Amino acid sequence: MTHVEIRHAMDPVSARQLDTAGLREAFHMGDLFRSGEIRLVYTHYDRMIVGGAVPAGEPLVLDEVKPTGTASILDRREMGVVNVGATGTVSAGGESWEMGRGDVLYLPMGAGPVTFAGEGRFYILSAPAHTAHPARLVKLEDAKKVKLGSPETANERTINQFIHPEVMQSCQLVVGYTQFHGGSVWNTMPAHVHDRRMEAYLYFDLAEEARVFHFMGEPSETRHLVMKNEEAVVSPPWSIHCGCGTGSYTFVWAMAGDNVDYRDVEMVAMEDLR
Ligand SMILES: O=C(O)C(=O)C[C@H](O)C(=O)CO
Ligand SMILES: [Zn+2]
After folding, report:
1. Would the CB of 187 count as within 6 Å of ligand 1?
2. Cα 25-31-37 angle, rounded to 5 deg
């Protein structure tokens, strides 16, 4: 079963008016991982699709997704899959990849229906594409690593870049995940924005009672959303996207938009945050 929800894009002036429930309705994406289901959110932010597939032993096939207007999801799109569960298999275009926890798979435009099987919990990201680059399974050891932050500012972390120009080619998807070093809990601080690309975060590896306070909004109008394990949030291009956990966690970041230049961001000075 494939469940699809539409998320319209919002401008920054309207977003300033929202209360907590309104903010969650517009930007928070919970309940993506249900046993035996594929659950997708089709966003109008660069038409990025964000979702989860949990086969729980029974294979699940992702094929037609009505809002794309094509017979099969990958007819005019590319896809990134991150396994945040136990080992499973993803198959498409006559090939199969065994995915361990933390592995990332890139599937190109034209790969056909995608089958998810085994014990994986598959986080799905898909954006429109214009050409087919080779499919590739990327393991953590093959990801490009960027170390940022320090223990003194509780933001010491490694950014693992998987679907990224320095590792492999894609059309517009850029995907990776960030891991923290002991005791650090702040992600993406100092904060930044990038009007050319939207971004989505999936928080995972959180303990049951732990939460991440995710900050969003224009730098001068910040708001927060309280995030549980395996919940995602969409960041409009005009918004900061950073967070602080009450415990340790990992998060998948993914972008789509006008370029694939990870470093093309505008840093926000601390004195400009409100
Ligand atoms: O911890 C970080 O900093 C990040 O992971 C930042 C994201 O990757 C990002 O926002 C990329 O634009
Ligand atoms: Zn960013």
Report:
1. yes
2. 130
